[in-house]
Design brief:
- The chain is mostly helical and 107 residues long.
- Strands 1-2 form a two-stranded antiparallel sheet.
- Strand 1 and strand 2 form a beta hairpin.
- The relative contact order is 0.11.
Length: 107
Amino acid sequence: SENSKEQIASAYLKCAYFGTKMIGIREACRILRYNLDNLSAQQAAELVARLKYPEPAIVLPKCRGKIVRRSSYILSVYALHFDNPKLSRGKDASRWQKTPSPTRSST
């Protein structure tokens, strides 16, 4: 039987690598002290950012900066996408992917 998109995403998040000693979203939330059942948008974006930039055992400012910048970008794309329902699917969906990333901080 086919799995729904939600089932596939859920299965992926259960085994995804978020960084050192953070395999799976539950473990990542435990280590980061996030409440998985009540994540803020910022916390959710930071978790998603760690999929691209997994957190190393020793977090240097450069690594932290990457996570912060990526989570800011995720939040801006999310806001743009959901503030404009016309961009939800199809050929118009690519338009929101072309938005410039937020101004980079000097971290």
